[in-house]
Amino acid sequence: MAIFNLGSINADLVYRVPHLPGAGETLAARSFSRGLGGKGANMSVAAARAGARCLHIGAVGADGRWAVERLMEYGVDTRPVATVDDVTGNAVIAVDDAGENNIIILPGANRALTEDHIARALTEATEADSFLFQNETNALRIGAERASARGMRVAHAAAPFDAASVQQVLPLLDLLFLNEVEAAQLAEATGTEAASLPVRDIIVTLGSKGCRWHNTDSGETRSFPAFKVSPVDTTGAGDTFTGYVMAGLDRGMPMEQAIRLASKAGALMVTRMGAADVIPDLKEVQAFNPPA
Questions:
Q1: Which catalytic residues are annotated (predicted)?
Q2: Cα separation of 90 and 112, whole Å?
Q3: pLDDT tens per residue, range 8-49
Q4: How many domains does the chain have?
Q5: How distant is the alpha carbon of residue 25 from its chain centre?
Q6: What single DSSP character describes residue 88?
Q7: In this structure, is residue 290 part of a structural domain?
Q8: Strand partners, 211
Q9: CATH code at position 130
Q10: Residue 286 lies in a domain
Q11: Quick check: is 174 catalytic?
Q12: Containing domain of residue 58, as a range?
């Protein structure tokens, strides 16, 4: 079994600031670092570090070889990553003393994927595999259609959120990840609450309040509390959670067990500065025992 992740690859340009800047404000940063990021790359690293075989479907520019090598170091299969005639995507991230952040993204090569590229990447995929995608690349509907036609589990992490994009792929989904704000925005756009969407499994993350899992086959909703930690940086925590859920399901875990493992991984992640480069591995997560 494997996870095929259609996702972004970014250079994260991280500035540590005393507070998040307001409109028109010039603010001196305390530090700067460059790391591997992008929601797609983060989720691929998380899935690989959680013990799954993960193939990343994405693109970089000629300046992005370092990012591909970093993915390989973290256990991700990068054979489906193309090099295209564009700059590698990048994100400017401001992180304040409370661990909150704001982010500006330049998509670059992430928007240069072709239907042929995706088709080649999925050539060996089977119904035992999963297909994961976010909203930081192009060709989302094409990828979801091809994965669904192969009988794969199709999962979408609907961020950065756009209601129209979610509605376009909604009929193809088996699993949908939303945060609390995104769930409210989608309900407003569709007139349907998360628990009633035409998707078998919906996970709504609630930050420090944990998450909710809706199973529309049974009509059941389960709530999971968050683990209590002191956050340092929330960047990549949701992506880590998603990657760990997908890895748990890929390894045959029941949804409840996958969510609990992913919740621990997300809690550990917010105690660290950075994104893909500091995502914890399975051994670290299993040894981590914060209070719930």
A1: 239 (proton acceptor)
A2: 14
A3: 999 989 899 999 999 999 999 999 998 999 999 999 999 999
A4: 1
A5: 30
A6: P
A7: no
A8: 205, 224
A9: 3.40.1190.20
A10: no
A11: no
A12: 3-21+30-281
